[in-house]
UniProtKB/TrEMBL annotation:
Signal peptide: none annotated. It holds the Pfam family FBA_1. It comes from the Eukaryota. This is F-box family protein. InterPro entries: F-box-assoc_dom_typ1, F-box-assoc_interact_dom, F-box-like_dom_sf, F-box_dom, SCF_F-box_component. SMART domains: FBOX (SM00256). Residues 1-50, 363-409 form the F-box domain.
Length: 427
């Protein structure tokens, strides 16, 4: 019996609704699919479908781990709220840099902020893009956001990074917040003047990215309102404030905890805990107005640590992530007791989290790393791999047999061996 060949439009529509992890494997099925799946127009179409789905909750380990198998890694754990009792695999992402101060997410791309550089990565595709920091960079005082604008000419998204200075309430010391924008396309920074934005008093409490626009929640330096939500419009290159629901704008004594989130993939949400009632309120923004979606009692469990900024509404129930050394998930709803699910992942105590969607976005046009950073990276690579890397380029062939580098590499290998022995002794 002859089979009917599907039209190319129908094949594209079907593939655009398949999870990104499966599409990566399907690329090798045939040449037509490989061409289609890597096409920017298809990548954007696929991403628009994935945004509407329930996003995967992912926990990242900020600690820098040196593994005998993977070298320098950042580990992350995926949690599917459809099956919350099953924790996703602990996946190491090969990387080489000092611990990240914070991690931002936008459309499957992750922005790591380290002490010396920025890194944009797509763990699914195992792609990385290093970004040189702008002049005056201070990882301890600068906040970041990752987002994009739609390019009408190319029909694709232009991804950008915005950074601004946070500080204390000292008007003479920080009269205004320094704002700069990095464009992936031009691989350059530019200074943005926004006299209406004063920055935050300290680091933002939480941040998210919705449809290419980054949002931050933080305490104000000046003014009558205690805190505010600020978004950055990349097309206008300016900050735009967003009002808060009434219970959250008064004294700090009224609100014990407050955090931004994304509701069902396409709406801004706000979770706050009232200090007086010990109840959690979930607010969702609809057409520029806040609506309170649900109110629940605080979980009646011994909670050590703090709530994280990620939460998700599933079938009328609220899921919370709480840092307490391990990963604790609390799922409950109105007039319902919370169910506690705990994961023992082996991750360190320094964690970041986000509601993450896997995507096929490329992190191309990577800049050339400084020679001293390249040397530091490959000095941690096992010797058996270095033998093969010698033939990658002339510079590496000259560097690797250099006596100074050999001595440096040997000291790193001894350090790694001692760490491995120490780990085995603890086990």
């Amino acid at each position: 019996m002859a089979t009917m060949e599907l039209s190319s439009d129908l094949v594209e529509e079907i593939l655009s609704r398949i999870p990104a992890r499966s599409l990566v494997r399907l690329k090798s099925t045939c040449k037509q699919w490989k061409t289609l799946i890597t096409e920017p127009r298809f990548v954007n179409k696929h991403l628009s479908h994935m945004r509407c789905r329930e996003q995967q909750f992912t926990v990242f380990n900020n600690e820098h781990i040196v593994s005998p198998l993977f070298g320098s890694t950042i580990s992350y754990v995926g949690i599917d709220f459809n099956k919350p009792e099953k924790c996703g695999m602990n996946l190491p992402f090969p990387i080489a840099f000092s611990p990240a101060n914070n991690i931002s997410h936008c459309d499957g791309l992750l922005l790591y902020v380290t002490k010396s550089m920025l890194l944009v990565a797509n763990p699914l595709l195992n792609q990385k893009r290093w970004i040189k920091c702008s002049q005056g960079f201070d990882h301890s005082m600068d906040a970041y956001g990752l987002g994009y604008i739609f390019n009408q000419l190319s029909g694709s998204y232009d991804y950008k990074v915005v950074t601004f200075r946070c500080g204390v309430r000292i008007k003479d010391l920080y009269p205004s917040s320094r704002v700069e924008v990095y464009a992936f396309e031009s691989d350059s920074w530019k200074v943005v003047v926004d006299k209406n934005f004063d920055g935050f008093d300290g680091f933002p409490l939480s941040s998210v990215c919705l449809r290419g626009t980054p949002y931050w929640l933080g305490y104000n330096k000046y003014g009558n309102q205690l805190m505010s939500i600020q978004s950055f419009d990349f097309s206008k290159e300016r900050f735009e404030p967003l009002f808060l629901p009434p219970p959250s704008i008064g004294s700090r004594n009224l609100v014990k905890y407050i955090s931004l989130g994304i509701f069902r993939g396409d709406q801004l949400s706000l979770l706050l805990e009232c200090h007086e009632t010990s109840k959690l309120h979930l607010w969702v923004m609809k057409q520029q107005h806040w609506s309170r979606l649900m109110t629940v009692d605080v979980p009646q469990y011994p909670i050590y640590g703090k709530y994280f900024s990620s939460f998700i509404e599933r079938n009328g129930r609220l899921a919370l992530f709480i840092e307490s050394g391990n990963i604790s998930i609390y799922i409950g709803g109105e007039n319902q007791d919370f169910e506690k699910i705990e994961y023992f992942t082996g991750l360190g105590r320094t964690l970041s989290d986000c509601c993450y969607i896997q995507s096929l976005l490329q992190t191309t046009m990577a800049i050339e790393l400084p020679s001293d950073l390249v040397e530091e990276i490959i000095s941690w690579v096992p010797a058996i791999s270095l033998v093969r890397l010698r033939y990658s380029c002339k510079e590496w062939k000259t560097l690797i047999p250099d006596p100074r580098f050999v001595k440096k590499h040997l000291s790193h290998m001894r350090c790694r061996e001692q760490q491995t022995i120490h780990t085995l002794q603890q086990d």
